[in-house]
């Protein structure tokens, strides 16, 4: 009986449809066949209609990158025998000569580029596309109503193919896809203040983000430990606050990063955290900072060194407004974050200047904080942009926020409901699902048995199991803009950047692109996702991202063979 049962199981495995193991995030609607198709030697991506004469430069560049990926990914299919398993299918495969790329219903000569689309207000970004890859060798067609949609479609197209020697092929033709994201905000947050990340590492990360169709790079650029942002109007901030003269982001660096992101469909949302997390400002403007490096630090801040902006000081308000105005004008995106997390009351209590100013203005701490937050949001609103804050500003402090303020929920997933109950739009960034830094122990030297505060390590499965609409009513669902995974970098640098982010950050990219339903109509599940995530991980490695393995290679070649129930 046992050999028979095994035999039946093997036949069932072989007879099962191949499934699209190669796509991440999986499209909303998808149908595939089981025929082979290979790219012809002269395979070309051709612009149709208005695009043939007026394709924006960033779309042309995206096409070039796609052709490069098709040629150089060099990924063999993840099956026992790898490419050798497909010899028969490849031999019978028709050749595909072209992918035709068209903008539907656009006769305009003034076509918005990917970059311009990526920086539109979030509700106006059109990322939808359709893609048809016939099995008979007739041209494939990618169409969309925006160049951003075309870019997302090119990203999908680039994931359809495997390599066998010099042959680039699929075994799943014909393929038809209709796709658009479930949520517009699909992000990754990087902290570049606890440890510094050179520009090249950020650019590589933006590439990886674009491979999983992420839409937002949340750049937590400065913090108490260092101030690497060069602001020409306030050069001393970075001159005295950066770790080293060459560990800074100049205006040219920021422009390059913003442009690189935009061309990959990614909006850069910068954060200057205030009034807490600002000790680094004391190096250049000691008069603006309360309790700088006060000890014991744990009484005055969640992390050393302590130090917060003197929130009741009129000259500090003017300074922060000028600082935000200077930074804002370099950024094309619609959002800007003023942070607002972990404001420490003890720090202000021990600061005689703040106490004196509160008395002078006849204000409580809460009132002064309200004045401060409104003042810092004024230049953002004045520029027609949307202020972003961490959840405490909505839940713990009595501050008046404009009704379009975007609130990042980070302390716990369970707090999302309370924020949307106030009518604010939210981004899910909960530490209990999406923090990439948890589980690496305590980093404080004399804390031998210490764990990270957000233990345990958040696996990709945990992140993938997140439900964006948990406890949120259907009339509140529109307030959920999406979510992001976050890397706080107390224990990260370029040396472990790829491995701590990838492939884990792909989990939320799919949660917020695909939503909770697979194209089959079934609910998403980690067991369905695993083989596709393997595929993505191997492809990331082929593209130069040092993503870590999810399992032994043996399991990667045998979908479901390492499931608990297998
Ligand atoms: C493009 O717009 C047309 C007309 O509004 C619509 O029918 C079509 O679904 C859109 N295509 C995509 C890929 O969103
Ligand atoms: C604040 O004022 C108190 C009382 O006047 C004084 O004892 C203390 O040293 C002052 N603290 C600082 C940091 O100046
Ligand atoms: C301070 O404010 C309180 C409440 O807002 C008010 O009752 C009081 O008269 C004010 N005191 C001064 C000196 O302005
Ligand atoms: C919050 O602020 C408003 C307006 O400043 C005030 O009326 C209200 O009493 C404050 N609530 C609390 C709980 O402090
Ligand atoms: C904010 O309030 C204004 C004016 O009442 C309204 O037009 C707008 O739709 C509101 N925005 C949000 C996000 O609720
Ligand atoms: C949903 O509500 C339940 C019951 O109040 C709570 O236990 C759970 O943590 C909440 N989950 C989220 C994600 O808000
Ligand atoms: C959907 O889920 C059901 C129940 O788990 C399963 O039997 C079926 O094979 C799934 N369908 C697809 C297309 O994966």
UniProtKB/TrEMBL annotation:
Catalytic activities: Hydrolysis of terminal non-reducing N-acetyl-D-hexosamine residues in N-acetyl-beta-D-hexosaminides
Enzyme Commission number(s): 3.2.1.52
Catalytic site positions: 342 (proton donor)
Keyword field: Glycoprotein, Glycosidase, Hydrolase, Signal
GO function term, MF aspect, one: beta-N-acetylhexosaminidase activity
Superkingdom assignment: Eukaryota
Domain Glycoside hydrolase family 20 catalytic intervals: 183-515
Domain Beta-hexosaminidase eukaryotic type N-terminal: 23-160
Enzyme class: hydrolase
Database matches in SUPFAM superfamilies: (Trans)glycosidases, beta-N-acetylhexosaminidase-like domain
GO cellular component, one term: membrane
UniProt-recorded name of the protein: Beta-hexosaminidase
